[in-house]
Amino acid sequence: MCVTFVLVDSCGKTVVAFNRDEFLDRATAAPHWWDLEDEGLGEDVRVFGGRDLRAAGSWFGVSKSGRIAFLTNFREVEEAEEHGNRDEGEHDEAGGGPSAFFRLGKVNATKKSRGALVKDYLTGKDSPAGYCKKVRQEDYSGYNLVVGDLTTSDFAHVSNRKCSGVSPLERGKALGTSNGQFGAWWKVRRGCSMLEEGFPSRAASKDWAKEVSDWMFGTVLLDGQKAPKEELPQTGFGDDIETLNSSIYVRPFKRGPVGEFGTRSSTVVLFHHEDRTVHWYEKTFLHGEEDGERSISLHKETFKVEGPGLL
Questions:
Q1: Is residue 22 a contact partner of residue 32, using CB atoms and an 8 Å limit?
Q2: Dihedral pair phi/psi, residue 91, rounded to 5°
Q3: Strand-pair partners of 271
Q4: CA pair distance 181, 160, nearest whole angstrom
Q5: Which is one Pfam family of this protein (predicted)?
Q6: Cα–Cα distance for residue pair 266/296, rounded to 1 Å
Q7: Are 241 and 86 in contact (CB under 8 A)?
Q8: E strand or H helix at 131, and its extent?
Q9: Which residue among 68, 105, 110, 283 is least enclosed by CB atoms within 10 Å?
């Protein structure tokens, strides 16, 4: 399932990394500048990120003013027990996170789309903590949300399941989440440790953006180590499924009639307050018809932040 990490060091360098796990046949737009004029927003509101073509939601984006937001869905054990097997073709409305494959139930029509949480923050003006506090958590199915302002290194995170308080991000300490509580799952703790140990030395190099992105793609986000059995989440889906999804990089596997599921893309976003430049690197894994057949599409976007914030 999806996993994400964020770390801000003492010098104002920020790294955000996201592995998006989804069904391989789910229609998804590559990262791009969103057309928001039809949604009543002015030309000065510019947002870059991927979007889900099935439900128009988003799981990760950055605005031209330096606002950043990303979310994962919270895996609902109760829904797994209640609904049983998922109908072919059902998907979660947010477009990122575990999708209905792990929720195994129909989208709750009484709830708002979680994908709107990302867009609403990116196109708004609330502070990170202010936005997290104003969201009516009961309006949405389970989620973990992280929002921030790159220009001030101010981040806040919140979940509407169990750990529901709004918390700031501590400098030099990685925050990670998957589809459970923040920092709880084995692969999240593993990735945070890798980031805290490996980021400082690479961030200090002259060509730090390339050093960090190469390392993140080649080591952290491609890590296939499975969790030991005693560390598997117990969410009602059995050890076999839990094991397949327990690594940071999820190798695609077939799940009955609903198709293959695995890591669809890996994204690394880097920012340094001194040059106010966002570096967006994204690798999309294109899987062929033959087992194990895979190619990679790389997307890069670099732009200057125009926001007023200063450290």
A1: no
A2: -140, 160
A3: 14, 278
A4: 10
A5: TANGO2
A6: 10
A7: no
A8: helix 128-134
A9: 110
Residue 112 contacts residue 145 (beta carbons within 8 Å) = no
Domain boundaries, the chain: 3-304
Per residue in 102-155, pLDDT (tens digit) is 443 345 667 888 989 999 999 999 999 999 999 988 889 899 999 999 999 999
- Secondary element (H or E) of residue 253: strand 253-254
Classify domain 3-304 by CATH number: 3.60.60.10
Beta-strand pair 28-33/260-272: unpaired
Structure tokens at 120: 């609403």
What is the spatial distance between Cα 64 and Cα 248, in angstroms, rounded to a whole number?
29
Render pLDDT for 182-218 as a digit per residue (tens, 0 to 9): 999 999 999 999 999 999 999 999 999 999 999 999 9
Say which amino acid occupies 268. Answer: V
Q: Which residues contact 207 (CB under 8 A, 6 or more apart)?
A: none
Nearest to 238 by CA among 229, 226, 247: 229
CB 60 within 8 A of CB 54: no
